[in-house]
Specification:
heterodimer; A: 762 residues; 5-stranded antiparallel sheet; 29 helices; 63% helix; 8% strand; B: 196 residues; alpha+beta; 4 helices
Chain lengths: 762, 196
Amino acid sequence: MSLERTTRRLAAVWLVLVLACVAHNAWHWVLQKRAPVTDMLAMLPRDEQRPLAAQATQALADAGSRRVTVLIGGGEAAQAQRAADAFLQALGDIPARHRVADADSQAWLSLYTPVRAGLLSPQSRERLAQAPAEALADQALAALYQPVGGPRVGAWADDPLNLFGQWLAERGQSSRVRVQDGRLMLTDPEAPERQYALVLIELPGSGFEISAQRALQPRLDAAAQAAEGQGARVIRAGVPLFAAVAAAQAEREIHTIGAGSLIGIVALTLLAFRSLRPRLLVALSMAVGLLVAASVCLLVFGELHLVTLVFGASLLGVAENYGSNYFSARQGLQPQERWAMLARQIPVVSLAMATTVIGYALLALPPFPGLRQIAVFSAVGLVAAFVTVLWWFPLLDGAGRMAPTRFADWLGSRRALWPALKARGLVVLLVVSALVMAAGASRLRFDDDIRQLQSAPPALVAQQREFARLMQAPGLAQFFVVQGRSEQELLAREEALTAQLRGLQIGAQAVSDWLPSQRRQREDAELAARRAADMRPLLAEKLGQPVVAATAVAAELTPEAWLASPASEPVRAQWLGRLGDGVGSVVLLRGAESADTRAALAALRLDGVTWVDKVGEVSTLLGRYRELMSAVLVLGFVLTWAALAWRFGRASWRALAPTVLASALTVALLALGGQVLQLFHILPLLILLGLGVDYGIFLLEQPGRSETRPFLSVTLAAASTLLSFGLLALSGTPALHAFGLTMLIGVFLAWLLTPFFIPSHA
Amino acid sequence: MKRRTLLLSLAPVTAWAAPDLAQSVRERLQQPEWLRGDFTQTKKVPGFAKPLVSTGNFVAARGLGVLWRTVKPFASELRLTQHEIRATQGGQTAMRLDASKEPAVRVINTLMFALLNGDVSGLAGLFELSGSVKGAGWQLVLAPKPGALQQVLKKVELEGDGFVRRIQLFEANGDESLIQLTNPRTDGGAEPGLFQ
């Protein structure tokens, strides 16, 4: 009776601890309203993290995450405008921008005209610096005599070379959107007869907020239908659309996969135990594991990353085995017999738990904060779930005898179907496996590109691509962050960067294009005035009359004036304001997608300039995590073997070999099935190590082919795992699909192979 | 076209007769596929005491563009095509606007061709038309419709018979140009190479 008394005492202590964890979690998530960290790059080792880059990325993402842009038309301008009106009417009270007041479209002229003297396009600057006065005079005169020329502001005499007009034209070319008939319009760059009306929709709150999307999606659909009714084409683009699709898919899958999985597991439990209690208690053990793991992680790291939560919770799935084992052993016993059963089971389950915890704890070895969090989370969670089974289950499993059901008996007795393989059988099995592995190895491919994990529907991706072609807007996946101690230093550094990029023939969009540094403005004004003075006598001579000198303007454009004007709106998101202990901005690029270009840009070294390639960095990160996890996996197998040897001695390979074989075969089959392997194929192998070795331990403890309970326990555990994780193979989300498929194949193989390796007598 | 007529009929009195006027002017014009001729341009620019006079010749080809060659006081060429506006002096490009980057280029080219050739339907898309017809002659006053064009042009006056003979441009910046077209020729044949 001493085990019972000890257990009761420990159960009470554990209850206090668990309640403390509940309170801690409630305080952190509910009262403090904290959320898990979501930035993937926070998973990098500390010394590789770049908080400034993260901040800049966040600012840009925030600006874009609430905006949906719609292009309507594809034919004549008038038709596009009619369709846009129909669209806006159907959209109702959702705030949208399409029409532009005359005053707004003039805002930039009123901002820039007073400071025009200091504004030169790079081409103008170069020409002014190099061309002889004669050539400049001829150019000015030709423009004077021609019936039409480039856009010009004010009289010829104020700016004979139309320097300001050229500067404005260059600004205009940074965006393809034009104000036409008081509306935002766009022309297809490859087919000028195709005109589009542009509608900007700005959602309140973040684009990832489900409620805002819920309201938007049907209205957008109705509006698009109204526009299409006018014979127009409708192209939609924006983060909220993708977020909406992802949310809808997740919801659909929770309904189908989630429900299917739940029904399957409940049915299985009812069939095996004729009661839901075992299932509820197993769920309780996992919930306790999660709660305790979250608390410990928060105490150790001060925060919890979303990736930890997702990966850690999956790794916790191994705890299924302990509950399943408890009830399989408990079935058919009188309540008072449970303590003797427990005394027998403790060493077995402890070993099962220890072998898994070893694998998980190894994740803490590499200096990656993400892996360390996952290691702590999963190891602590697993121990907590295990302790719950050991200390709480005996007190909560009911007073009944738990009569064995016919189904449980039948299932357990299936053990007899597996012959214990002798040397020859094993050789055959190994040869066949080796052939499959060799075939798989020839097809093995890895690709860690994060874009592999995108799962947006092709129609939406196609629209986004067409939108990018029409708008020719700069990309947001790669960019430069520029910092300076002062605004002027920042602008000067931007100018140094954009000069380099012009040399590399890469289109850039920078704040300093719209707001040149003070120094640049002064130098340009001086250069223009000097060359105008050189040119004036030549002009007078050729025209046969004096030319009035332009009145000198000393005004300069300041950051304050620029930020305050509506004219700065198109690039204002790139101005980050305070960043670190100075100010910062973002320089966006066009046509920098190719790997070669990105490598060249990453190699640029300029003061205060940082290259950010989020897609590349996250992909590299996933690759490094994949490699580390693979190494951890191998090490895990070795250490597990050592732990098994400690208990089973020379027979220990029998518990380990099936899982090793199952893991290798799984990888081979995935490769043969055309899967390109990445992190989400490797992570489940670590779980498989924990699960599969447990099957080996349970069966090897009571090896007889007539022993039904170990096999019942293992089969129920494997079936539950397949129903929960394995069904994720049906998911449309690539990461979940990869994870699920690996679990499906791996767990099935481990369950199938293990009994072959167990000798028929101890 | 029908819709445009409908819209115009709702406009004020001066435009009320516009469809008839446009029709009458169109009946009087030859409007060949290829038109060549000479010009004398007299430009009054604020800040200059004397007007600026230039002479030269032009080619207007339907669907292709306009070539404007100034001969005096110095040689320069302005070429307006579907894809660009390009000014050259002595074979060197002095100015270039790309239609794929600057959609306004197409509007300017349409306008130039329509002015030289008297393409009334092209002009009606950009201007409110008024004017009168007398015998073989006609004259039109073009007021830009609201929009970007109003920021460049205040008014255009056009006069002619079988050809456009006189164009007077009143620009928003105060420049005034009188372009007299002489010696129109329709027999030169096609020379598409000019607009490549």
